Amino acid sequence: MSPKNVIFKKICKDKSVGVYMGKRDFVDRGDSVDPVDGVILVDPEALQGRKVFVTLSCTFRYGRDDMDVMGIAFRRELYLSTRQVYPPLQDREKGIHTKIQARLLRKLGHNAYPFFFEFPDNLPCSVALQPAPRDVGKQCAVEFEIKAFSAESQDAKVRKRSSVTLMLRKVQYAPEGEGTAPSVETTREFVMSDKPLHVKASLDKEIYYHGETIKVHVNVTNNSSKNIKNIVLSVDQVATVVLYSNDSYVKCVDIEDSGDSVSPGATLQKVYKLLPVLANNRERRGIALDGKLKHEDTNLASTSIIREGVLKEVMGIMVSYRVMVKLIVGGEVGLEVPFKLMHPKPDAETESAEEEMVFQEFKRSYLKGMVGDDEDEEGNVSGGDDMAPKEK
Questions:
Q1: Which helix (H) or strand (E) holds 93?
Q2: Residues 33-61 pLDDT 10s
Q3: Which of 37, 259, 288, 298 has the lowest CB atom count within 10 Å?
Q4: d(C-alpha 51, C-alpha 337), whole Å
């Protein structure tokens, strides 16, 4: 069976505009970001003289759209760029930037037109704070979307039935090269004890991939007269909302209550295993995710890496991770070991003229059970195949 290229398609309710894209994840590679490209299919009869526009936007939402406290809007548009697609402002062939666009234009016919956007350097990656199962409204998030619409002009009021929206994700992959494996140690002295307690915690490497087990090496030398009653290890996710208030949300995303004890004069050397994954945290409000798309699953948010020269304040939500090692000894002795949690860099994508294109529609059935979805608007429904030309 030959490889297949999935094409994401969505058509507005009045059938005047349809969007076709080869992907919805766009990679920030540190020195560059994948451009956003696709094809708009128009129906001149349904347009009734209207023009067709497409926008790429980045929005930060820190609460519901209807919230406004002391004049501060809880929704901020970080970026908006608009292109006129129809009538075209340039020759159609000059607007083709990728092979998938060229193939889509051949497939969809003369009423299809390409579009192309480049991300500016200073935009954050997609992040969303997970709502609780019964929460309503839109969650706190940094979101990207492509919106195509038909209207008399760019600034005219857009009818819902004449517009269509696709959510995108801007994601980061782990940088090349290995950093220094993190290691933290501390010495604690106690009253009425001549000698101290020494603890060291270290990881095998600085960067872990989503779904990878984290091995924590713990060395305890208890020369004190205190009895260590227990050792508890956890992975904390720290999500800091930097755009408005610098609020931080610290969430434990995995924990190991070992029950290990270390008596006075004894030592312990042990490797503990932790696995921070979304599957074990699905019901918890406030967990940061890698910008959940409407019909797809996702994962815990990746560590935020700021490009040099970019202000932290425009990043929306910053995410970091740490392993916490706590020794219960009368009070508590704790160590904090930072690390990065990211996606591995994928192999280079290749396109072949022989690959079959498979069109995937967006239907309401994808959205069942998803709280706070914005695709229940009248215009944002999937069209059938009646708009696209049939395969000859």
A1: none
A2: 888 989 999 998 888 888 999 999 998 87
A3: 259
A4: 56
